[in-house]
């Protein structure tokens, strides 16, 4: 069975993606609804300092990406965000990461569908409770569900067609905001608006840090890891898979940073000039364009308000199928999701239709639970994303003896991983109690489902016939002897501490010194938790040696049979 599964995995990773396709995945995931709707939210929280939120978010993403790219190039594996933590830290930590990742991608489907509905509201009436409201009407709910179904349906096409469509769609999605920045600067910065807006003073770096999570900034940057979701599918001929991954990921983050900061500056300047920021359910930039007479640009932006979120939703839905397949191959969820051959429409079409169906229902439940609010959906997504992004740093340091790094490069990786873990903790603390508890409760629900559904399948034979996965929750019984359980307890304890600090210091009207104390404690406890996680992970690998894929540069002299066995669990 292990050999058969390895063959299916090898077949799944035969397709080789070019830099163009990889950038299409990264930029296609990043450029969605965040740039259109996040500027107004960030401005409301940080005032004229809102551009700092995009700077902080981008720098944090660069740091995190540095860790993830190093891990993804040293052990290139499609579905690696789940597979690699499983190898380093065991099934329980992998389950926490998997629950967060699955929910991020599923909630993205809901949030992009809501953004599409808001974008369409300029043309179709009755979708929102009011023109400046975040609440959907019954008609709006129906449109959102139809958009979710449409995004899922497009992912049923053959992957070679999907990547081609997505790559060229991404080109269009990037051209529109770049054109918007240029034209609005040229046409509007030398004009005086009606004077009703007035300058809003900046609220400081602390407010900007809060806006990073709660205003859709993190949400806007999420998606750069798309190429890493397909790390096992990258072309290996010169310049090599590692170079292609780095170019796609870092190029996307740096480019989006520049673009997002420029868009926020344009938004702030127009607001301060008095141009109306009301009635912005779709895109504020479309209203600015209409106000200064660029009607054709306004129409283009309104159309893009539907197309751009759909494009991002397509990328996330497609990437989710690969991550869930990796989760299934590890028997952390239903085994029937693990191969394209078992879960696709046809052997010729590498399409995980069953994962798409499950994703649709998870997204629909999230949409209902969060009241169809884009703000709530993106805030929860931001928290979950940061939790998921914290795990690769632990994995990279834990696996250092197995990745072939040594000397200065290894030391640099360790500093990078610890710094990213600490900064993620600080940003989560800065998000405040409201966003943090919503995100943590969502993560807890996902973990409970993944951990206890296998037990339920054992207790109920009828359910067991349709759901087949290993029972891992029992590892907690032997926490004193099980390093995998200890690693999970370190991670969960770290999240509980952050939640407690946010409750004590986050949203209460306290002074700067108390706020600083809370941030100091968040960073300190994060570094302690990181060391505990790494030690427990290494003890786990002493008991269960990791089985890692081999990079192409190191595998050139290895036979194809050995290369297949290298990725066998």
Account of the protein in words:
The chain has 569 residues and is an all-alpha fold. It has a single domain, classed as Amino acid/polyamine transporter I (Up-down Bundle). It has helices at residues 2-12, 19-30, 34-46, 50-74, 80-89, 91-120, 138-154, 159-188, 204-214, 217-221, 226-229, 241-272, 284-291, 295-329, 340-343, 353-369, 374-398, 407-430, 433-459, 461-464, 483-506, 512-543, 552-555, 560-566. The termini are close together.
Would you count the extended β strands for me?
0
Q: If helices are DSSP runs of H or I spanning 4 or more residues, what is the number of helices?
A: 24
Please indicate the count of domains. 1
CATH architecture classification name: Up-down Bundle
| End-to-end CA span | 11 Å
Helix-strand topology string = HHHHHHHHHHHHHHHHHHHHHHHH
Kindly report the average pLDDT value.
81
Low-confidence stretches: 1-14, 342-351, 554-569
Q: Largest sheet at a glance?
A: none
Question: Quick one: CATH class?
Answer: Mainly Alpha
The CATH homology group name = Amino acid/polyamine transporter I
The chain-level structural class is mainly alpha
Q: What is the strand content?
A: under 5%
Radius of gyration (Å): 23 Å
CATH fold naming: Amino acid/polyamine transporter I
> What form results from the Cα inertia axes?
globular
Q: Helical content, roughly?
A: over 70%
Features:
disordered C terminus; 24 helices; Amino acid/polyamine transporter I; globular
Briefly say what this structure is:
This protein has helices spanning 2-12, 19-30, 34-46, 50-74, 80-89, 91-120, 138-154, 159-188, 204-214, 217-221, 226-229, 241-272, 284-291, 295-329, 340-343, 353-369, 374-398, 407-430, 433-459, 461-464, 483-506, 512-543, 552-555, 560-566.
